[in-house]
Amino acid sequence: MSHDGMLNELASSQRLHELRRHFFAKSAAGLGSIALASMLSQQARSEVMGQELLKGVPGILDQPHHTPKAKRVIYLFQSGGPSQLDLFDYKPTLKAQHGQPLPDSVRNGQRLTGMSGNQAILPLAQSTFQFEQHGQSGAWVSDALPYTAKIADKLCFIKSMYTQAINHDPAITFLQTGSEMAGRPSIGAWMSYGLGTDNENLPAFVVLVTKDKSGQPLYQRLWGSGFLPSRYQGVQLRAGAEPVLYLNDPDGVSRMQRRKMLDLTGDLDRYQQSSTLDPGIEERIAQYEMAYRLQSSIPEVNNLSDEPQHVLDLYGEDVKKPGSFAANCLLARRLIERGVRFVQLFHQDWDHHGGLPGALRNECKNTDQPSAGLVADLAQRGLLEDTLVVWGGEFGRTNYCQGKLTATDYGRDHHPRCFTMWLAGGGVKPGISYGETDEFGYNVTQNPVHVHDLHATILHLLGVDHERLNYKFQGRRFRLTDVHGIVQHQLING
Question: Using one digit for the tens of pLDDT, what is the confidence trace for 148-206?
Fold first, then answer.
């Protein structure tokens, strides 16, 4: 075929594609645009008259696949990999064999990171923290977490978590998106896409990052929408006078002027869409409108002046410091009360390759009371029953010391083979410890729970079949659990 012939064929193919696109869009998505325009017009009139819109925005699912036990999720993500051996997984063998090399029969040739893989020996390191059993469940918790220990009977400890990623970025990405490769939708985006929100004035998915923390970097893609429409991405609320960047009106611009500007912009966007049929235009309209509504809803959520002192006391003295983990835990409760579907907190600096005893205790001081206070606060308000709380990092820590081992100091390397997370509320069984590791705390020996299994179970608690919530992209149907995932019914009540 000649060069001109190829160009003509490509042009014809493009015209055919546009004709098909117009036909299907005008018969389906086009009707959606008309409905959207009507909704926005009604919304504009309501807001000008000062009326609040609280009816919510539905997700892609008309109704859950089965009766849900949880309506919402608060995910307390501890970035860096908290040491399960110093917090939850008590191993007397490490004390008895402190300083001795990790037996080859236990490691069994498993890979190590480059940080400890070249050490002459891998000396076993006992925990310097004291462990006791707590509550009627007899859960083992170290003295680094006194407040968590007090609510042990409300928690479901999963001691047999495991993952395949051994370095932070792929491991964190895997916990958040179900894939080690960047670009997939985050778990909160999947929830927003599937289930929507109960309040049109707030996003379905909100992210809170502890202020002024170091450690492994966090990226917006960890709460992004990936290939899902952009309206489903997480909205980060920041500490300070501007919780959402670029949200405030410029000086001299009134709310009425902003409303008129958005209406005109929406008209122009819809005119452009009538000719291009670009679905991204509807996404822009939705984002503009959400930003407009956030101007009034976010200040109200952030205003803690109506919280009584006895509630503030649950979260600890840091609750009065904007952007602290404690303040974010309280803000998470206020958000889910107002219909937000998924709230995710990110707290960094759990990556303790050296100086672990002091560094770990410091992070526990920052997070222990607020985490326990959140669970207690939800319980006293009757919200814990249908709110799922998730606590954990991207992997665990090794039972051997990275670097020099002394009588009072040690560090631990990354360990994907086993780690501990806990769940509370939302239909999970309280007061149980599920799964076991060997006496060295190196391998799972009973009831392994993979990251995909955790995601499948979280979705199941929300009434969603993880195999049926999917999205077609580039010719393939994707889902949060990829082609894996087994719901852990042993963790679920009823």
Answer: 999 999 999 999 999 999 999 999 999 999 999 999 999 999 999 999 988 888 899 99
Report d(CA 134, CA 150) in Å as an integer.
7
Q: How far apart are CA 156 and CA 19, in angstroms?
A: 55
- The full DSSP string for 322-337 is TTSHHHHHHHHHHHHH
Task: Say whether 170 sits in a helix, a strand or coil.
Answer: helix
pLDDT tier for residue 62 given thresholds of 50, 70 and 90: confident
For the CA atoms of the chain, what is the radius of gyration?
A: 25
Cβ burial of 358 (10 Å; 0-12, 13-18, 19+) is exposed
| CA proximity to 440, closest of 1, 13, 94 | 94
Q: Work out whether the CA dihedral 260, 266, 272, 275 comes out positive or negative.
A: negative
Residue 354 near residue 401 (C-beta atoms within 8 A) = no
| pLDDT tens-digit map of 316-352 | 999 999 999 999 999 999 999 999 999 999 999 999 9
Question: How many alpha carbons fall within 13 Å on the CB side of residue 182?
Answer: 9
DSSP element (H, E) containing 312: helix 309-315
**Residue type for position 455:** H
What whole-number distance in Å separates Cα of residue 398 and Cα of residue 375? 29
Range scoring the smallest mean pLDDT among 22-36, 290-304, 376-390:
22-36
Q: Find where tokens 């009371």 sit.
A: 369
The token pair that represents 324 in the structure block: 């602290």
48 CB-near residues (< 8 Å, 6+ apart) = 256, 259
How many angstroms from the chain centroid is the CA of residue 141? 24
Q: Where are the alpha helices (DSSP H) in 138-178?
A: 146-150, 168-177
Rounded distance between C-alpha atoms, residue 146 and residue 373, angstroms: 12
Q: For the chain, how far is it from start to end, CA to CA, in angstroms?
A: 67
Which residue, 81, 77, 85, 161, is CA-closest to 113?
81
